[in-house]
Automatic annotation (TrEMBL):
UniProt GO MF annotations: cyclic-guanylate-specific phosphodiesterase activity
Membrane keyword on record: no
Protein name per the record: Response regulator receiver modulated diguanylate phosphodiesterase
Keywords, in A-Z order: Phosphoprotein
Source organism of the structure: Rhodopseudomonas pentothenatexigens
Lineage per the UniProt record: Bacteria, Pseudomonadati, Pseudomonadota, Alphaproteobacteria, Hyphomicrobiales
Length: 417
């Protein structure tokens, strides 16, 4: 039975289709689920609804008479109150549908999916189902997060609420742990868990990013030091944001920190995105080259997501390439993604770089990437990012499996952050 509708819990759906029969079918499914559908038979009607309301779901028919669904997607991307999910319904060929979904992802509408026409009502119900309860709480969370200030973050840093969690990196051929990536976490007493997508930009704006990164580096290198006696090749990766790449004093500060903690330079990998590296090429080159000369590894993060990936690859002294998880995620089901992943592996090897695949979520992807020659993997298949003590527990369980059982999910792994 659908939940009773109250103003707080109501799920609003905008159904956009120039065919009134299709529109009525989709709206009917929404009503049966207990949602509130609004119907728009044209781009202009949809634009009017978007200007006046907020929607949890939007279903879009790609061909809309005088306008097309792409124009509507562009308009939605510009609206402030983004829907939780967009469902594109179309009878056009699969490649166009896939490319449309990717375009929506690229403009920030990450939960966009497609359904073929003629529409399968069971599939539509599944696509519409997950957020019945989430809609109301999401509004609360969005409102709560928008209240966070730089001072809150400063207090969080000072009180130890911000910390480094570590996500393992695995040698895909042997299943051995090669190291980990340090990911910043903020468990705020006032706001609950806050994601790095929220607080890293805040740290940048509020001038806290250097202090935060130095803290991450210190925690990471202390963590590496505890692993080196058993894993001498253990490497911890730390993310560096754009403003720090133009800080030419950084290589010496990092070197001093390594000496103080007593960790060799090869135990540190610095991750930068190509967008970061290309923002101020001259200074970034200066900083990255000096870090490399000191023996620190440099990894190109989120490879393929910016506009100058190949140019950055050719010009900058990277030692590792990380294929973005948006390509890895669907690489077994989407031939276009597979082509990107396989050519990224080939090109990285031509530059004598190790290749890391981010976002491996199942054993099948692990094996396929291993067969392709991808060196290292990271993703929920192995573990989420863990606090240091939980990482040590996870490491013991994982290594106890031995190299022969790679990809075997027999041992329950710890997947909580
Ligand atoms: P990133 O450096 O590309 O980090 C990888 C992100 O992918 C992490 O998200 C990680 O939790 C997520 N991830 C890893 N495996 C999987 C998987 O199998 N499936 C899925 N769905 N996700 C997976 P997280 O921790 O939310 O971090 C997001 C971004 O925030 C990072 O992307 C990085 O750009 C930034 N970030 C995190 N910590 C720091 C930091 O200390 N300093 C800076 N400057 N940026 C940071
Ligand atoms: Mg990273
Ligand atoms: Mg990445």
């Amino acid at each position: 039975m659908p939940n009773p509708i109250t103003p707080e819990t109501a799920v609003d759906v905008l159904v956009v289709d120039d065919d009134p029969v299709q529109g009525a079918i989709v709206s009917g499914v929404c009503t049966k689920l207990g949602y509130r559908p609004r119907f728009a038979s044209s781009y202009h009607q949809a634009a009017e609804h978007l200007a006046n309301g907020r929607f949890d779901y939007i279903t879009i028919d790609l061909s809309l008479g005088d306008h097309d669904g792409i124009e509507l997607l562009r308009l939605i991307a510009q609206t402030e109150a983004k829907p939780r999910r967009i469902i594109i319904i179309s009878g056009c060929e699969e490649r166009i549908l896939n490319a449309t979904v990717r375009m929506a992802h690229a403009v920030g509408m990450l939960d966009t999916i497609s359904l073929p026409k003629p529409i399968d009502l069971a599939l539509l119900r599944v696509a519409l189902s997950p957020f019945q309860e989430a809609a109301a709480s999401r509004r609360g969370v969005d409102a709560r997060l928008s209240e966070i200030t730089v001072d809150d973050l400063r207090r969080g840093l000072d009180s130890g609420e911000v910390y480094a969690a570590f996500q393992p990196k695995i040698d895909l051929a042997t299943g051995k742990v090669t190291g980990c990536e340090a990911l910043a976490r903020w468990d705020s007493a006032r706001f609950g868990p806050v994601g790095p997508d929220v607080f890293i930009p805040l740290a940048e704006q509020g001038g806290l990013i250097k202090a935060m990164t130095l803290r991450m580096l210190r925690d990471s290198m202390t963590f590496a030091a505890s692993f080196l006696p058993t894993e001498p090749k253990f490497v911890v990766a730390v993310n560096l944001s754009a403003s720090l790449l133009s800080d030419t004093s950084l290589p010496e500060e990092v070197e001093r920190l390594l000496a103080e903690i007593g960790v060799p330079a090869r135990s540190l990998m610095i991750e930068v995105t190509e967008t970061t590296a290309m923002a101020d090429v001259g200074r970034a080159m200066d900083v990255l080259l000096r870090l490399r000369l000191k023996g620190i590894g440099i990894s190109m993060d989120d490879f393929g997501t910016g506009y100058s990936s190949l140019s950055a690859l050719a010009r900058m002294p990277f030692s590792e390439l990380k294929i973005d998880r948006s390509f890895v995620k669907d690489c077994l089901t989407d031939a276009d993604m597979w082509k990107i992943v396989s050519s990224s592996v080939a090109i990285a090897h031509q530059y004598n770089m190790k290749v890391v695949a981010e976002g491996i979520e199942d054993a099948a992807t692990w094996h396929a990437l291993d067969a392709l020659g991808c060196d290292i993997g990271q993703g929920f298949e192995f573990s989420r990012a863990l606090r240091s003590d939980a990482f040590v527990d996870w490491y013991r369980t994982w290594t106890a499996r031995g190299p022969a059982v790679r990809g075997d999910a027999a041992i329950p792994l710890r997947r909580e952050a």
